[in-house]
Amino acid sequence: MTVDQTELRPRERSCTAVAGTNIALCKYWGKRDAALNLPATGSLSLTLAEMGTRTTVRFGGVSGGDRVRLGGAPADQRFAFRVSQFLDVVRKQAGISDAAEVVTENSVPTAAGLASSASGFAALALAASRAAGLMLAPPALSGLARLGSGSAARSIFGGFVEMARGERADGGDAVAHVIDDAGAWDLRMVVAVTATGPKPLGSTAAMERTARTSPFYAAWVTGCDADLADARAAIAARDLDALGRVAERSALRMHATALAADPAIVYWNGATLAAMNTVLELRAQKVAAYFTIDAGPHVKVLCAAADAARVAEALAATPGVQRTVVASPGPGARVIEQG
Ligand code: DP6
To answer: Could you report the per-residue pLDDT of 33-60, keeping only the tens digit for each?
Structure first.
């Protein structure tokens, strides 16, 4: 007797996945194709263990469209729409049409402005694709996550991860890969929270405005390959000083190009500058600590594990710093439960 496999498939399929956020040491800032979310340059990051997202996706048994919950409450319309659009891509690839229930939690409070689309779309890509019956290989999963958010492509992997700019028009080669699992290198990223509430301008809009109006944008793009080469060499040599110097240079150049946009994009506040100054003072005292800053006012400081407590203490004592979080290198996105 032959059995029709489709009849045996449960009507509801769910998957829970987790992903750590990642902090770019060579920043992604600008796109070569907005529709496919293809980056204008490569980027390089460190995935973190303690800060991330846990997401459950259940297809089937949901009536009246996708239902999205974030941090225990219905998600706001903008976020829910972005998730639904992403689910449409997964549904198309899987050949299904079911609505989904998505329940997502960030391990740092969303209100701190640290909740990251990187860990969010990495966890969603893994949970949604598995719940839809797709078994994607890591590079394909990275490409899928990229459609949600460029930085999410990197959070599919753990340790030091490089995202390729790619050359192909269809984006098939714009995926991330591990360059080093960071295993034998005891590093920490100390995050100084300098504000509460969402950032004034999201990265997508800010990148678009920067590329369109900043006279420094072309120079930024041109300089990225050299930063990537220096970062790769520093990681291979386990040279924290060299890696930290590239990270600061990349962050400052990214912000310089955004500051020169019209209207200007200013993510920093007074505490951002004070925290940067604290890092410079630590260095003057021979502590190897290096800052990086993303599309917001918080300052993230790379240092050796042995110096993390001292760095956190100095940042906590900096005027305007509300709290600090110490995070270590972490693994890539993974499935926790599948039903
Ligand atoms: C400053 O990945 O949030 O954090 O692809 O438009 O969703 P979209 O942008 P997003 O940008 C991240 C920008 C950054 C630098 C980085 O993580 O590389």
So the answer is: 999 999 999 999 999 999 999 999 999 9
CA of 253 to the centre of ligand 1 (A): 15
Q: Which atom of ligand 1 is nearest to the CA of 294?
A: 1
250 in contact with ligand 1, CB cutoff 6 A: no
Provide the β-strand partners of residue 304: 187
Ligand 1 within 6 A of 272 CB? no
For ligand 1, whether the C-beta of 255 sits within 6 Å is no
Q: What is the pLDDT of residue 114?
A: 72
Which residues make Cβ contacts (< 8 Å) with residue 20, sequence separation at least 6? 47, 48, 49, 50, 51, 52, 119, 155, 158, 330, 331, 332, 333
pLDDT in tens, 62-114: 888 999 999 999 999 999 999 999 999 999 999 999 999 999 999 975 545 57
Atom of ligand 1 nearest to the CA of 207: 6
